[in-house]
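User: I'm putting together notes for a lab meeting next week and I want to include a structural view of one of the chains we've been expressing. I don't have a solved structure, so I'd like a prediction I can at least talk through. The sequence is below, exactly as it appears in our construct file.
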Amino acid sequence: MDAITLEVMRNRFFAITEEMGAALIRTAYSTNIKDRRDCSCALFNVDGDTIAQAEHIPVHSGVLPWGVKGALEHIDKEALRPGDAIMHNDPFIGGTHLPDIIIFSPIFYRGKLVAFVGNLAHHVDVGGKVPGSLTPDATEIFHEGICFPPVKIKKEGKIDPEIFGMFHANIRTKYESGGDLMAQIAANNVGEKRFEELCDEMGVDTVLEAVKELEEYCDRRMTAELEKLPSGVWEFEDFLEGDGITTEEPLAVRVKITTGGPRIKIDFTGTCPQVRGPLNCVRPMALACIYYVIRAMTDPTIPPNSGTYRRFEVVTPEGSLVNAVYPAATGSGNSITCQRLVDVLIGALAQAVPDKACAAACGSMNGIQLGGYNPLTHSFFANGETVGGGYGGMCDQDGTSGVNTHMTNTRNTPVEVLETIMPVKVIRYGLMHDSEGPGFHRGGFGIERVLEFQTDEVDCFIASDRVKTQPWGLAGGKPARGARFTVIRADGTREDLPSKARVRFYNKDRLYIQTSGGGGWGDPVRRSRTELERDVKDGLISEERAQTQYGGF
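Assistant: Thanks for the context. Below is the predicted structure for the 553-residue chain, given as structure tokens.
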């Protein structure tokens, strides 16, 4: 296929996934999808390999194809019909955690199966022991909600009422989650229609040839990038602050990366065994982190396609934190453990390509799950939030402040929306001063959010990290300040929380959320005096910190 036609087809494939994402977001019911955009869409070939994926959530990029490929091992592909849609949320088939529901559909053209279209969306509740389904004290997957094996939620164009009824009966937020499920199906309808239109326009043979050519093209581009890396063995380790249940001892995450030539080997041997708490990752989650980091540190313009990752050899010891076995709890694996996997991968590759590496970011998605029963509306409520932090500094720029970092790409919940859907009042929301890692290029600043509760019996579940283990700096840069979570009761009583906690709030109690910034890059004494003065003037860095950490003006 000539290069011009291939480039046109590549863009058409990715345009389909982007339009699917727009349809899903616009038709979703929950704040988690329509405002925070915690969803991803993709196209797959008949074997479940990725053709194209919209730039939505990085942790989904590696998980979605394995979710489809894993499901295809459990269903009869020959028995699929036009109008079918398969749903599942089983991490051990291919996924992240139970609230992330995958729905994919076959695409037929003139009676022949030619591709699949699918999406993944995080639901605000899928049952389980707590509202929102994610709790730091889960010790098995059964605590985290209802688990669906691959089932046909739609059969030849009609929703299966029995499967939908089972789903509906096991969740608290029936209105929001029911609507979100329909939005996922609608997004797939858009993808199916656009792919069929593409086959009509270009010819099905040309489209399928482009699918194969795109995979080879992505393989060639990644091979060229891998060959540019210096030969060597690069090792790094970092730690998580316990599983929140059986131990507060540091949990080691270790990686050894071997480069040189057209292949790369990533070996997590030495990473701690799977834990009792919900920090466990299944293998596709570890693969997602690898895909993200290596694209980011080679050439991020290479499309996310199965061919891009063909030359990666990945070792994830079975029964470890990066390849947990059933029935491990996985609820916080993507929000905490995946972020640490990114840190160790970047830390290792920083030794090989230091100009492509950033210092450690805030190190967690800082998950805050709120839920309960509102007596004023006579209904259950649940909402999950990933509160952003700071990126690490780089050789040529400061870290970005107050954003969701690395494996998440979600937006924040607007204050007005949060106060509408939840019985809370937002007292403060802004950047956290003095939270950055000092450096020639400083890290980004974390976030401070203060919530005041307006009713009793609100369950809160905090799934975070980097309270004790600060985000590290590079090239002489200093670590950022760790995260902090504080409760101040209505009577003035104060309680400092660990990084993983379950706590109940009552009327007029307040929760103070202060997330980590990013580590600094380079000696902070070398920082531009003009930039330092600006940060002090903006109230982001105190004069005392400017003097003690940066050497003054």
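A couple of points you could mention at the meeting. Residues 3-217 form one domain. The mean pLDDT is 95.

User: Perfect, that's what I needed.
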